[in-house]
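Researcher: First entry.
Model:
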Amino acid sequence: MANRLINEYSPYLQQHAQNPVDWYPWGEEAFQKAQKENKPIFLSIGYSSCHWCHVMERESFEDEATAEILNRHFVSIKVDREERPDIDKHFQEVYQLMNGRPGGWPTSIFLSQDLKPFYSATYIPDEPRYGMMSFSSLLEVIADKYQSEKKLLIEKADEILGFINSRKEKIQATRLDESIIIRFIDQAKQLFDHKDGGFNKAPKFPQTSLLKLLLDLHRITGDKEALQMATHSLNSMAKGGLRDLVDGGFCRYSTDDQWLVPHFEKMTYDNALLSELYLKAYHTTGEDFYKIVAFETLDFMLEKMSEDALFYSASDADTEGEEGKYFVYSFEKALRSFAKAGIPDKAHPALAKALHITREGNFEGKNIIRVDDPAYIDIPYYDEAIAALRKRREEKHLYPFIDKKVLVSWNAMMIKSLFQAGRLEARYLESAKQSLDALLASMYIHSQLFHSTLIGKEPRIHAFLEDYAYLADALIEAYRSTLDETYLISATKLANNAIERYYNNGQWKFSRGEFETRADIYDSSYPSAMAVMLNVLHSLSSLVDIVYKKFVFKTLELHSYDLMRQPISSPLMSATVVRYLKDDIIVKATEEKLVQNSARVDDIAYPFTYFKNDTNDGFMICNSSSCFGHEKEFDAVLKYLNQR
């Protein structure tokens, strides 16, 4: 029998609608039940493509005995973190305060009937292990303590909430200067993995904004090691594993140092940001390999992850209850696929070796396809082998579950990347315009921006700062690509709304309303919404009105101490600082060198380039991350500035 999640839009909540647990969505019905029955609340936060969320569901939420304990002693609430990032953000902060370390998913929070958190965990096993008691035993202990020691639990919860609610920003302003460039590069060098690329040890995430800034700083400083760190990381990530060589697209992160074994979920934001990053690497180095990876990633998203010009949020790590089953191959079946494709038998041993296919396997007895040098593949029958392996997937396995939820911020990231690719191939420009029009039509209704929905459904959840920031950023990118001023007007309107809703004297909120949460300067799974918004405002200060720059300065000033001390933790904010600091130099160069040539100042920015625009009599200046294909002109301006 279905529980109350059956009527929810979220595919993640729908996944739990048939659990024996009497799940409630977040809302008054659940809160009132807890009050009326004097029961604590068990809050479980996750998302549809989360591997450990599935594990906990199979072990505990589908178990009748565990469900009976939950139903008897608790009111159970399920939240999709992608649908409600405000709830997730609040309780991630609660978790970190309680445990002294960052959390993860699934997030398991126990609350009083008054919504006061008194215990928090992430994944909880069904049997005692990892130094933890079993989930069912924990439920029994908490249920007993809630009845016998409720007052003490509430006191502890009040301490946590008091700390969150009373905490003020510690302001230690310091001078922002160009030493941030050297400091950022030096910190990157200290953390860099010289063997496998990337930063720190496993689990390894792509850290796109860090790599992107390294490419930019290489251009401005000539630091060859900054370039080498970026390109070595990009090459290593593309070998296979994190990057799916068979279907295309990137997985979320690697569980090992070599980028070989991912959790196999594919997120829209990763693929959007990585395609943008590989395009930047192509324009920085001139190596076609990076363009090929970017186009392959965009094609994967357009083919597998879109509908009606909008993009789904994610595909799953698990297939048929098994992690990675869709993605991996046994030695025998891989070679059988080669034979069926007509690849000569004598070529099979060398082909298997080149693709890292062995009898022992490189992942739980099976094989993840991988190559040693993705930039220069010289493997006989490689294309035929990849096609054969792709065909085997399609014929023998179910495709991983796709969360068809549409998120404004993630769609906007994809659209921005498509516009950038559209400067190289017109087909991507058409896709970008179609997707942007579809997103605005479905999610920006009567001047009200929403956060998420399903295709064809009326959106319910209002937008957060990240939606305003990323959509405005995509609109400015659309303007740069088309010079259609309606895009610029919409970007300005969104930025004004964001300032009104979320800005206060240099501080930004991520959400307001039920949960008022602060915006972070740090890049997490994807770049800081605050940093994206500052870059939007910086662009608007050149394109529309210089007044927008005061919001940029005030915010950077407020966070200057943290940014100058450890810029590596906030790559996009650090890039914003560099962009801001370079303004005066660029303005002077514009006045002296370009305005005299009837220049049109499209976006005085850093890093920058200028070029002759076919649709405009004069020159444009714009952010080099969006003016792809004009790197020689960038270097000409840079040389001119260095000679001054």
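Researcher: Second entry.
Model:
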Amino acid sequence: MDDVMYKLMNWPEIEAICYSEHDNPHQVLGPHVTDNGILVQAFFPDAVTVTVNRGKKKIEMEKVDDAGFFAALIPGKKLFKYTLTAKYERGEETVEDPYSFGRVISERDLELFDEGINYEIYEKLGAHPMTIDETEGVLFAVWAPNAMRISVVGDFNNWDGRKHPMRRLGNSGVFELFIPGAEEGDIYKYEIKVRGGLTYLKADPYASASELRPGTASKVADLNSFKWSDEKWIKERAEKKAVNEPMLIYEVHLGSWKKPKEENGSFYNYREIAPMLADYCVKYGYTHIELMPIMEHPLDASWGYQVTGYYSVTARYGTPSDFMFFMNYMHEKGIGVILDWVPAHFPRDTFGLSNFDGTCLYEHMDPRRGAHPHWGTLIFNYGRPQVSNFLISNALYWVEKFHADGIRMDAVASMLYLDYGKNDGEWLPNIYGGRENLEAIEIIKHLNSMMKKRNPGALMIAEESTAWPKITGDLDDDGLGFDFKWNMGWMNDFTSYMRQDPLFRKGCHGMLTFSMMYAYSENFILVLSHDEVVHGKGSMFNKMPGYKENKFPNLKACYGFMMTHPGKKLLFMGQEFGQEREWSEERSLDWFLLSEDPVHQQMDKFSRDLFALYRKYPALYKLDQQTEGFEWMSCLDADHSMVSFVRRTENPEETLFIVCNFTPNVYEKHAVAVPFEGKYKEILNSDDVKYGGAGNVNPRMKQSKAVMVDGRENSVEITVPPLGIAVFTAVPASTAKKASLKK
């Protein structure tokens, strides 16, 4: 070896490269300007020879270490573009030198990340196809501050961790490497070497795509090539006040809503299922769909709630571009899309976030803070700025990159309480000795604040099962800042009530009416979700008491009460047509019921008409969160298991009058109190023959009479349907008189 080149080389660092322990290989590898020329160094394990290709000129490098370290001192003072050709016994490869490219991620980006406020950190970390100096490749970047060395491994380098070690960027804990020639579709992982010499593989926490399970590798994806056409939808969304709009949400598990006919474990692609699902939602009148998690997860039976790829669209149904098509298509059909999101915990799968860099990086080190003992999962360290940034930017990512219309945050209660699901000795109090998770509260407020500022009209929805105050309260008033909260109390009470034999419902009447005691404490969504139709709970149909012929009228009354009660609505897929079997992710919904069973067809017809009525009449949604929008006419008639009430807007002419009967008895010429003198016209009756009922309806308009009932001055005599609901328009006498005079 030439003495000049020998003296220029840093042999301890070369040894670190050869032993795969260097965390800043750009200090050694690549081109370096010296007083004696350009020193080019490269590491190609197992290579026989390596040449530097400078245009047509080829310069053979000297093998200075048998491990595969090569060097060449080339005359000149100016860096130049070149490729490297490595010859092996099995063949050769020519590549552009990854270590000839400069740093990409800026110091400012890292400072913001350290502070937990780089809201677009997903544009920096992860794998990003890009062109640098006319060279196409992929920038890989990962946060792993306690790693000794990290390499990118994949098919492009035969999964050899010696070939592409990454550069540590100062004290940020971030490593990056631009690999020329890597491209969209390449699968990869990070090979992490930790103190003590242990080496293992991890999927990319910021990957935009992943292998289809059981594969666990990450996949390079380009998120900027899809052409969106939903600008009008996004603009109009920002201008709407959701609390005053109709919201009828169809909760969907994409993998089992509909399956290809062969049902051999395959799924429809996002592009295939989009038109089928959109047409169905339009037919039923759903305003939104809510997708159970489409973030990558290893186990089908977890339904997506055990997330391993927070930024990765699950490969079960296609690519990120396919999912963008799905979202865009839904918007073109006038349907909003809400995504379930799981920031409360993550699984222990060794390829995922757990013990990521050899330490508890994403989770708390103390299991009393960092683990759910009964769930078997890990809890995020919400107080670590970079972890907070990971989660906040993740929620923003789904809204800003995939145009989601809302995020439904799963298991919020488990985040708010340090002792949630834990026994004594399994949890630690906060700094004030309380059970509130102050760091989780802060991240929730932070996220909700940024979502509102950056994405007007995008909804934040909490699945919170306790009485924590001000879930939907303003941030300025010490609220958590959500737009809506799932009404779990109503769901528990109401499903318990509906399970009762009608003969005994009078003893449970409070379950039916209690929800109005707190209906305005939060902005609520009434939910009959997937949680109510799994794990032995039975379908909504089979929650209803009695024989099959009794279940259908019960179910119609159930949905009728739900749709007319204050609050936005959510119904899990299949329940609208009376799916009989309990839901399973392993099979498609029982669509054959709609083609083979007239009773289910009638149920289907009722649901569609009921949902259309909900969207048509502003009284059913416009003043959902204001006391003026609802008034009981009768809520104390436990003996008849009957309630009646009105729904209103600011316009008295838009008033609706509703009567619900939860017994199998028909009440003819039954006097019921009404809100004012006027005319009452029935617009929906669940006992109509077209819905499979016996025809106990009110075909003629009813004129109120000055007969006091339940303390009200006016009443009407109607036929009350058995196990049913009747909905009437209510026109005040003064309005009817004016209309008559005009004629």
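Model: Note on the second entry: Residues 121 and 390 are 8 Å apart (CA to CA).
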